[in-house]
Amino acid sequence: MSPVFPRSGRSPRARHVLPARPERTSFGASAWHRGLAGVLVALGVGLAAATLLAMTPSTPGPRWAEGEEGEGAAAPAAAAAAAAPGIPGASRVVLVLVDAIPLGNIDPALAPHLWRLASSGAVGLMNVRTAKTLQDDHTYVTLGAGTRAQGPPETGHAFNSDETVEGVPAAVAFARNTGATAPPRGAVVHPYIALINEVNSGLSYHVVPGALGEALKLAGKRTAVFGNSDTPGHPGRHAVAIAMDSSGLVDLGDVGQDTVKHVDDFPGGMMTDIEVVARLVKDTMTAGRADFVVVESGDMSRVERYLGAGLLTDAAYEKASRSALASADALVGRLLEFVDLTDTVFVVLSPSPAAREIARGRSLAPVIAAGPAVSTKSGGLLTSATTRRDGLITNTDVAASVMAWLGVTPPPWVLGAPVRAVADPAALRRLRALHDEIASTYLVRAPILKTFVGFQIIVALVSLGLIAFFAARSKPLLRQRGGAAPETPLPPPDDSRPNHASPGRGAIRTAGRWAHATAGATQALLLCLGTVPLAMLFLPSAVHTGGGASAGALVAAAALAMYVFARAVRGRGAPPGLFAFAVVYLLTGLAVTCDALLGSPLMQRSVLGYDPVAGARFYGIGNEYMGVLVGSLITGTGLAVDRAGSPEAPSSATRARRAPVLACTAVLFALGLVVLASPSFGANMGGTLTAVAGFGVAYALYSGRRVTGRRIAALAGLGAALVAGIAIADALRAGGPTSHWGRAILAVSAEGPGALADIVRRKAAMNLKLIRYTVWTRALLAFLAAVALLWVRPVGLAKKLMKANPGFASALGASLFSAGVAIVTNDSGVVAAALLMMYPSLVLLYLACREAADGA
Predict the structure, then answer these.
(1) Three-class SS of residue 126?
(2) Which has the closest alpha carbon to 585: 846, 817, 829?
(3) Which residue from 104, 146, 444, 486 lies 20 to 30 Å from 361 (Cα-Cα)?
(4) H or E segment at 262?
(5) 44, 785 in Cβ contact below 8 A?
(6) How far apart are CA 838 and CA 835, in angstroms?
(7) Which CATH class, in words, describes the domain spanning 92-425?
(8) Residues near 443 by Cβ (< 8 Å), separated by ≥ 6?
(9) What is the pLDDT of residues 411-454, one digit of tens each?
(10) What does the H/E/C string look like for 436-485?
């Protein structure tokens, strides 16, 4: 008998898949899910509004933000610095500036004095990020401020007090511009300190240009500065910004034309007169007239300035660079002839990297230190509490270190930590390997992550398109006008008669076959996408074996291997693919947790981990893998709960199966929360609050409890108490705070609520900036849009899926809630939220695509 379409206009199969009048269902034994669509819409509207706000016309963002993911968008990690007890003291500190020197040039053939100093002292790589770009106007001001700052074009316009400026002695110009008393002869002044203060006043956090010199002055210490990087018509006295106090005054020095000599075959026709500069420094130190001495070598800066102006060919640049390096090395050799390293800390650093080094991903600058505070028996690597990573420090650590070495307590607005040395006989070789590794990862990070996000969006769109196609195809192919079914049944097929089937009907069948094949491939891709963060964690070495293409191919191969493994162990009787999702997600969460417990060696090298070049974070769990950890554990446990049975099932067997699953879920959630909250492991304050919200809501729903406003308030109180308690305990540690949590408490106790307001403003500003610049915003919007569309179309599909998978439904709701918390509590919250929402979104697309394909 031939099939007859019912008058309702639906085939029985289509009616089974998409009921015309879907029943009201509930999942997770709570009623709050009925507002899930409202929460989703509110979250999407809020994010869209923030995006519009961030995209309003403004000045271009800093260079580190362009094309970067969340790794480069956070504010400085520390909130305050305290002089670390036990730091050996020194009577003097000499800081020699050799700008734009590559680490590879510290070589016995090119710079023998620097190489010997590096071999006997301690070496490190310095993150040189500022509040703006990596130009010397900003890097020098940052070194003197002790926090990421910026400077105007007049940063280098400092003068000896008796030099002529604006037709009068510089001391007079300084006095009339600042209102201060004119300093005596021999001092160095910055008449335009007001401009430096002005450009920093608009930042979202407190910056004090000259904080280093000001703290030393208040402690009774004296400062000096010698040398310049002048070029014809352009004063280059940026070193003054490091030694000056907050009024723009340095006690003594010489930055004038007497410190340079004329050399016809060098760019600009002038070079630093190393004999004059060395004699000035020697006289000052012999007489004990200064405790902190800054020496500008100058010549490398001159070469970089001419290269940046396009005035040098490659051959001329190479020749001038060799001459400048030889001059700087000779200056270091002359200074070491009379500097006593038993009571003087001698530091050589590069405030800014060379332009060609930046293009190669080598934006970290070398630092060499020797003396009582950083002495080792046979060489060592520099590190600090800011980075917790051997061989890495930040430019904000320099001011804190100078103060600590001279016995001065830094003010709260100095956001670094004193550096120390870790013994390592092969320090220089190990540092070069570390630099190569960081540069390789940096160069492939953006291409790989942008490709990953783009692929996520494409697969999501394809999935939605397939779901729409299957939903439309499940409707009756024949309708009379007005939607009534034909009165006469269709005749049975007769193979003996010629086939006069319409070409359109054959094309539809062909399209259906292709759609089913595409749906199978898409479902596989959805699972593969869920394995990528785990593959990126375990294949950090992939980026060092070639370019971005080979690294991406290896990550993709690893993701495919994990997909095959997950499908192989899915188990008997499990819904196709869901157990594979659960396995991959739970393995991901456990891997991130274990890596954090081991000191994050994998995250430090992963393209999805934090970036030492961007300098947003150097230790713990970054917001990228925080989102991965929270999202994978919530969704993975939700799928595991579904496998154990529905909480509404009355049978004792179901309850017996659910009990161990819920117990394991509690253990996983507790372990993830402890790792995120511990200052020694995860050290992620916003991540802790995100985990408390997501894990708490998810577990309540798994247990069949309602999520009420009172329980949400209790979770908020628990999160706040946990964060505050850990931060206070860290601040009160006998050896000083180990993380930015404790340093934030010290800042608030010293400055009051204003310090906390600074932190909140800084995080909010960085989050808005990230929303504008990062590709993760598009990923988050795509996931939210996919969930929202599936929630309303096809009609009844989402409710059917939620009823069939109550544990996953609970995980979806908890993920949405924790994603909102992540955006609010993290300075790169949009990154964490996008990765967090990736996990339930992939499962939802998988379920919807499978259900729609089966019903078509």
Answers:
(1) strand
(2) 846
(3) 146
(4) strand 260-262
(5) yes
(6) 5
(7) alpha beta
(8) 360, 361, 547, 548
(9) 989 989 999 999 999 999 999 999 999 999 999 899 999 999 99
(10) HHHHHHHHHHHHHHHHHHHHHHHHHHHHHHHHHHHHHHCCCCCCCHHHCC
Cα angle at 506 between 505 and 511, to 5 degrees? 100
Domain boundaries, the chain: 92-425, 445-477+509-704+775-855
Take residue 782 and report the two structure tokens written for it: 């795509």
Strands of 32-99 (E only): list them: 92-97
Measure CA of the first residue to CA of the last residue in the chain; give whole Å.
22
Going 439 to 443 to 444 to 448, the CA torsion angle's sign is positive
DSSP character at residue 465:
H
- In 631-642, which positions are buried (b, 16+ CB within 10 angstroms) versus exposed (e)? bbbbbbbbbbbb
Please say whether the beta carbons of 580 and 639 come within 8 A: no
Largest Cα–Cα distance in the chain?
116
CA distance 293 to 379: 24
Q: What pairs with residue 393 in β-bridges?
A: 126
- Note the pTM of the prediction, 2 decimals: 0.82
**Please, are residues 816 and 38 in contact by the beta-carbon 8 Å criterion?**
no
The DSSP output letter for 386 is: T
309 Cβ contact partners less than 8 Å away, ≥ 6 residues apart: none
- Residue range 363-390, pLDDT digits in tens: 999 999 999 989 877 789 999 999 999 9
CB 798 within 8 A of CB 786: no
Map residue 685 onto helix, strand or coil.
Answer: helix
DSSP letters, 307-376, are HHTT---HHHHHHHHHHHHHHHHHHHHHHHTT--TTTEEEEEE-SS--HHHHHTT--PEEEEEESTTS--
Instruction: Give Cβ neighbours of residue 190 (< 8 Å, ≥ 6 apart).
Output: 157, 158, 174, 196, 240, 241, 244, 248, 249
> What is the distance between the alpha carbons of residues 680 and 689, in angstroms, rounded to a whole number?
17
Closest by alpha carbon to 146, among 211, 99, 93? 211
Asked if residue 20 has pLDDT above 70, the reply is no
Structure tokens at 260: 């340079």
Tokens of 120: 């006997």
Cα(679)–Cα(738) distance, integer angstroms: 7
Beta bridge partners of 768: none
DSSP state of 437: H
Token representation of residue 197:
């203060």
